[in-house]
Amino acid sequence: MNDTVTETVTAVDGTELAVDTAGAGEPLVLIGGAFNDRTTVAGLAEQLAPRFAVLTYDRRGRGASGDESRDYAIADEVGDLAAVLAY
Fold it and tell me: 59 burial class (0-12, 13-18, 19+ CB within 10 angstroms)?
């Protein structure tokens, strides 16, 4: 994506999540599927960026994000999304 800024946010358990932001306007978060990273939705984010501030992120254990938990828990995914939304 053009003019994309990549930063990290920290989830409640200390997991660092890689987040890309592109565009300006109302925020819109795109979440890739279970086995994907943020590049999967980058094309869609680029199309939406003229109208929205689009955030895409690597879910924990994927791409450039860490994974501080040992076992998968949906609560971690929800907490990660909350950390991205608070960004």
Answer: buried
Q: What is the pTM of this model?
A: 0.89
Q: What is the pLDDT of residues 10-54, one digit of tens each?
A: 999 999 999 999 999 999 999 999 889 999 999 999 999 999 999
**What sign does the dihedral 16-18-23-29 (CA atoms) show?**
negative
Rounded to whole angstroms, how far apart are CA atoms 30 and 36?
12
Residue 41: name the closest of 50, 24, 28 by CA: 28
The Cα–Cα gap between 8 and 30 comes to 16
